[in-house]
Structures are given as structure tokens and as C-alpha cells.
Design goal:
Structural class: alpha/beta
Radius of gyration: 30 Å
Distance between the termini: 32 Å
Shape: elongated
Number of helices: 6
Number of strands: 26
């Protein structure tokens, strides 16, 4: 019996728990998920430094003349300090010398020989970045479950970390089923089509943080389907199958999973497109079976495959989904969730707007090119009017 989208999501998340941890060099950690909070090991910045090229001085009024006694460069601090009668030339990022409490920029001072004249008052703290001003040692700077992007890695490195404890990257096995499938670019015989699903899903899985370890193709044969699934369970943390998920005479995925001892979580979702999708676990490995129609496969991956990978990687989906308001009316189904393609526009002073293009056809990929996201229309008896909020899921993230 088909389940609701809400129940399907809950069962997928329940089955896809975080994988074990491993130590990852920070240079290789892009896209990985932290397994524990990251604590700063050092002050950032680690020392007081100059925010400008100029002259390090003691605070005081404009018009003073000071004797130049040294230079502080980035990575090469001045040898000594100064007093109220002296100044030290300083570069941006260089360590502030002892007793200096202000930096006067080059353009607001004059240097003749070794005499510096200050044209502005030097107030305490002028153009100085204090030690620990960004964050101090001991501060938790990143939470467990954070997916590491370029900014997060910069913070981790600045905080003194060369290695990070992350959840293992989920390994994904992709299997396309169907006698009609041909590899991209090969000659098509009568009744054949190109296999676009495995390549599209590999891209989506990679962007979602998965590591695609295999992309296989199998015909409509129960024994071959069983062998291909068994191979996937040996190598992967998540198996994704396209095609063969329904109950026709040439649909062998459910039978193969049953023969392999899989525990069926659900078979069918009250949704359009993507109703035949099913989910099971076999030998501890979750299996997401998607329809063979490419749009339906992409839709169900965005709705369920992406959260599955997030859960395996240790990153739980946000409790509050992204929302936009409809820019035009949309027609829900009275009995099932309807997924529509939308284009997004951020209004100047208002909310994010979603212009709905209507229900998606399960097989026609070309209309997806014009869509920024998918909008989730819950079952309902009445049309959704412009201005009503809807959940949206961006296709590419």
C-alpha cells in the first residue's frame, strides 16, 4: 500500500543513520560532515596585528613628530618596542610592536628621513586587530553535523586544526534496469533508449555528498537483477535502483530484494510523479528503488535520496524546509502530493516567489531545464492561490 510523502521521508531518515567516523586531512575535507564540535586551539588572530600599512605609534594628538626606529613586516616582527617619541613602520597583518596602541595609515602621515609627522590623532586601538578578536582559543566554532564548505574549512584551519573527525562519506551504488537501456552515445536499435538516469543520479548523489562507487546496467532478468543488487550491497552504504520498481511482469527489483532477504519499508508513495518508488533495507544497507522515467527518478531522489545521504553522512535535514510563496495559482490533487516545477525570484523587499509551471510529466526532462526548484503541493480539494506558502526543494545544490 502506498504511503504518504511524510511517512516515506520519516522511514528513510530512520533507516539512514550516521556512518562511522574517520580522521580526514583538512585539505581533503570539502563536503564532509563534522562528527564532533570543533574547538579553536588558538586565538584568531593569534597576535595583535595591523589592519593598514602605516606607522605603529602610541596614542596621542595630531601634529606630533616621531623618530622612526624600526619596521614590522608580516612574518618578521620588529626587533623592539617604542615609546611616545618613536614610531615603527608597519605592514598590513604584521605584529604590533610592544607599547604601540595605534596605527596611523601611510596617507595620513609624512616621512622625511627618519622623522614621521602624524596628520591625525592616534586614538587607542586605531587600525589594530586584537588577538582573539575573530574568536578566542577554546571557543566552539563549528557544530557537529556541519557540512564543510570553503568558509568552514578556512575557519577550521585558522582555529589550528590540520585534521578533522568526520563521518565516513556515504558510498553509493547505482543500478539502471531495463532491456531497452543503451549507454550514452551508442547507436539505438528499435525500441531502445539512452540510459540518462545513472549519470543524472550520479551527479545529484555527488553534489549531495555521496561517493559513487559503481554505475551498472542490467536487463529485465530476475537472476541478473539479484546478482547486481547483491554486488551493490557488498560495496555501498546506499543502493539506488532505477526502473523495475513496479509490479509488471518485467519488473524484477522487488522480487530480487525479497529473495535477498530485504525488509520492505514501503512500496509506493502517494505522489505524482514517482508513485512506484519503494524503499527497503537489505543486510543493513538501505535500497531506494526509483521509477525508470527520468523526471520521476530525479524528483524522488531530491525528495528522499538527498535526505538519505545527509543522514548517512551525519547531517540531519533542517527541521524547517525552505519555503516560497506562489506567484500564480497551482492545482493540487485531492488524493496525493503533487510535485510541480517552479522558477524562483527574490523580490526586493518581500519573500521568495515561486512561479509554478504545472505538474511534471514523469518522462519529459526538457521542461526541467526551466525549473530552479520543485514545489511540494499537499493533497487538497481547493486550488492554491497566489501568495500562499509552499515547500520548495532546489534541484541543484
Amino acid at each position: 500500500m502506498a504511503v504518504s510523502l511524510q511517512l516515506a521521508r520519516a522511514r528513510v531518515l530512520e533507516a539512514c543513520r550516521a556512518l562511522p567516523t574517520e580522521v580526514v586531512p583538512v585539505a581533503d575535507a570539502l563536503g564532509r560532515v563534522l562528527a564532533r564540535p570543533l574547538i579553536a586551539r588558538v586565538d584568531v588572530p593569534p597576535f595583535a596585528n595591523s589592519a593598514m600599512d602605516g606607522f605603529a605609534v602610541t596614542s596621542g594628538p595630531a601634529g606630533r613628530t616621531l623618530r622612526l626606529v624600526g619596521e614590522s613586516l608580516a612574518g618578521a616582527p620588529a626587533a623592539g618596542g617604542l615609546d611616545s617619541t618613536t614610531a615603527i613602520r608597519i605592514a598590513t597583518g604584521a605584529s604590533v610592536p610592544p607599547h604601540a596602541d595605534a596605527v596611523v595609515p601611510d596617507e595620513q602621515a609624512s616621512l622625511v628621513g627618519d622623522v614621521v609627522e602624524l596628520h591625525i590623532p592616534a586614538r587607542p586601538g586605531l587600525n589594530i586587530r586584537l588577538a582573539g578578536e575573530d574568536f578566542p582559543a577554546g571557543l566552539p566554532v563549528l557544530e557537529a553535523g556541519t557540512r564543510l564548505g570553503p568558509v568552514e574549512l578556512a575557519v577550521a584551519i585558522g582555529a589550528g586544526h590540520g585534521d578533522l573527525v568526520c563521518h565516513r562519506q556515504p558510498r553509493v551504488a547505482l543500478l539502471g534496469t531495463g532491456n531497452e537501456l543503451r549507454p550514452p552515445g551508442e547507436r539505438l536499435e528499435p525500441g531502445q533508449i539512452y540510459d540518462s538516469n545513472t549519470t543524472a543520479l550520479a551527479g545529484l548523489a555527488t553534489r549531495a555528498g555521496g561517493l559513487v562507487v559503481s554505475r551498472d546496467r542490467v536487463g529485465d532478468d530476475p537472476h541478473a537483477t539479484r546478482r547486481a543488487l547483491q554486488a551493490g550491497f557488498e560495496d555501498a552504504d546506499l543502493v539506488i535502483v532505477t526502473g523495475g520498481a513496479s509490479v509488471g511482469p518485467q519488473d524484477h527489483v522487488r522480487g530480487a530484494l525479497t529473495a535477498l532477504g530485504a525488509d520492505d519499508e514501503f512500496s509506493g508513495i502517494q505522489i505524482r510523479p514517482g508513485r512506484p518508488a519503494s524503499f527497503a533495507t537489505c543486510r543493513g544497507v538501505p535500497v531506494l528503488a526509483l521509477p525508470g522515467n527520468p523526471v520521476a527518478a530525479i524528483v524522488i531522489f531530491v525528495l528522499l535520496g538527498r535526505p538519505a545521504l545527509a543522514g548517512l553522512a551525519g547531517r540531519r535535514p533542517p527541521e524547517d524546509p525552505e519555503r516560497a510563496v506562489l506567484a500564480n495559482p497551482a492545482e493540487p490533487s485531492p488524493v496525493r502530493t503533487t510535485i510541480v516545477g517552479v522558477t524562483l525570484r527574490q523580490t526586493l523587499d518581500g519573500p521568495l516567489e515561486a512561479s509554478a509551471s504545472g505538474p511534471l510529466s514523469a518522462h519529459a526532462t526538457h521542461p526541467l531545464l526551466a525549473c530552479d526548484a520543485l514545489a511540494v503541493l499537499p493533497p487538497g480539494e481547493h486550488p492554491l492561490t497566489a501568495g500562499m506558502p509552499v515547500e520548495i526543494l532546489r534541484i541543484s545544490v
